[in-house]
Specification:
With 287 residues, the chain is mostly helical. It has one domain: MetI-like (MetI-like fold), CATH 1.10.3720.10. The chain has helices spanning 2-48, 65-68, 70-77, 79-110, 116-124, 131-149, 157-168, 170-181, 186-193, 198-209, 211-227, 230-235, 243-250, 256-281. The radius of gyration is 26 Å and the shape is globular. It starts with a helix and ends in a 6-residue tail after the last helix.
């Protein structure tokens, strides 16, 4: 009997030891992943405050001159026009992708029809394709249309917009679809029983309830479009350059500290947008 008690006690200690080791391994994995993701961004911010223009490490001295001289250099570097183009492109992309994605998600979640799964698979397929494949395919498509139809399509804001809508469309489909799946259809039925039309029930009941999913899709598509480099590289013309393209071109003739200051401000702007939307609508539940 005593032998069995000692054996069970030993097994219990072993189980506790293994459980603690598993918890420790899980914590190390989580925090290690966080450090791995955030370390490059933190390094960029640190470089933007160092006095050495060429990003020596460890940093020698702290200065704000890369930020204070930034307004004078932005126009000369072409950043102002690129920032304006990127913001306009991201806003239009977000509105179009979220609208189309919302309609597609509504149809897929709310109705049963033939080829429903096929349609959903096709619409979210850009998630599995490399961005370089999407950009190259659209560029070749534009060239083929020019050859077959004799239509002269120039690479411009509109070709960029098509490319950005194609690759961002799956994201609002997922976020809005997630909010619709948790939606109680009886609320619409109750509204219609009280005299509301089907359209009124959609606008006054359904739309406010799924609003966090819609806002999540807007933010997601805006950020993705604003940061997109590869597709913009294929589909941008000589008259329009987005912020990622300009930043990459500046890499060869601008000091790393100056680039780090620009990048830090961009990160701060994007982070502010995300935090505001999280505070207003709790978008993290659908992202």
């Amino acid at each position: 009997m005593a032998t069995e008690d000692r054996s069970s006690g030993s097994d219990l200690r072993l189980d506790r030891l293994l459980e603690r080791a598993a918890d420790l391994g899980y914590d190390l994995l989580v925090y290690g992943t966080i450090v791995f993701l955030l370390a490059p961004l933190i390094v960029v911010v640190i470089i933007s405050f160092q006095s050495n223009a060429y990003a020596g490490w460890p940093p020698q001295g702290i200065t704000l001159k890369w930020y204070t001289t930034l307004p004078e250099n932005l126009a000369n570097l072409g950043v102002v026009s690129a920032l304006s183009a990127s913001v306009q492109l991201a806003v239009v992309t977000a509105v179009i992708s979220t609208t189309l994605g919302g309609l597609a998600a509504f149809a897929i979640v709310r109705y049963d029809f033939k080829y429903q799964m096929t349609l959903e698979t096709v619409l979210i397929s850009p998630l599995i394709y490399p961005w370089i494949v999407i950009g190259l395919s659209l560029l070749l498509l534009v060239g083929r249309i020019n050859d077959l139809l004799g239509v002269n399509i120039q690479l411009s804001f509109w070709t960029l917009l098509i490319g950005h809508v194609v690759f961002t469309l799956p994201y609002p489909i997922r976020t809005i679809g997630a909010s619709l799946q948790n939606y109680n259809l009886s609320l619409e039925e109750a509204a219609q029983n009280l005299g509301a039309t089907e359209l009124e029930s959609y606008l006054r009941i359904t739309l406010p309830i799924v609003q966090p999913g819609i806002l999540s899709g807007l933010v997601f598509t805006f950020v993705l479009s604003f940061n997109q480099y590869i597709i913009s590289l294929f589909l941008s013309g000589p008259d329009i350059k987005t912020m990622p393209l300009v930043l990459f071109s500046l890499f060869y003739n601008t000091s790393p500290a100056q680039l780090a200051a620009i990048a830090s401000l961009l990160m701060g702007g994007i982070l502010t947008i995300v935090l505001v939307m999280e505070y207003v609508a709790g978008i993290s539940e659908f992202m």
